[in-house]
Here is the input.
Amino acid sequence: MTDIRALGIDVGSTTVKIVGVDAAGNLAWHLLEPAEPRVEDQVTRLLDIADREKSSDAKIPLVATGYGRGLVLQATRRVTEITCHARGVYRELRHGGTLVDIGGQDSKVIAIDPQGDVLDFAMNDKCAAGTGRFIENTARRMHVPLEQMGPVALATTAEVLISSTCTVFAESEVISLVAHGAAVEAILRGLHRSLIKRIVAMIRTVGLVSPLMLSGGVAQNPAIRKMLEEETGAPVILPQHPQLMGAYGAALMGL
Ligand code: ADP
Here is the structure.
């Protein structure tokens, strides 16, 4: 049983996250699952679990965010991911800067002012390169566990250039490079570089205000943080639970 005063649910294209906050706005409880095709059923099931978890019977606010927020029929409010990620990250880190959110099928760069307000943003949801899917596809094809992709890429300083800008072509290019004897570590480093270059181009359109902050599931990949620092020269700061920041920000809006 947990003291939960508001819930936030982030229905992403890849995962669904639900967060409960206490009266002081601390992240008190959470669940994360892969997104299921029947979103409404999954949301209902997660809300039942949350209902059993909360210590009081009082009805509490539920704020929905993410790509599938329109499908959360029980929501008392729906808010964009841009606002929610900014809110969650600002509440934890307590400073402005440029926030990079890399999810499974989209990525965003959000400029946050010193008061926590969103000044500007750029979003890529048209192309899988520059998103988690880019790394996931290759991980699957190369039989490297997703959690190992970053560490393997960081295990070398050698780097193979991946010239394909499309994720489908990049996948074939990687397979061909392996067949021609290139080292897996150097290929994976090149793959991460390619994703980072796309993110840096987005950062340029919004403008970099140091420090950089990272949210979204891909923030858990250590090569992303390291290479983003290398490419921009700016320090990169992570909240404790980067993948939960959208749902956390949503829950804070409900308080
Ligand atoms: P969305 O909100 O768009 O559904 P998330 O923010 O939940 O997406 O991020 C999902 C992405 O995070 C996936 O593409 C996955 O590859 C990546 N991811 C999740 N966990 C890890 C991890 N431990 N290491 C590297 N990447 C990860």
About this structure: The two ends are 19 Å apart (CA to CA).
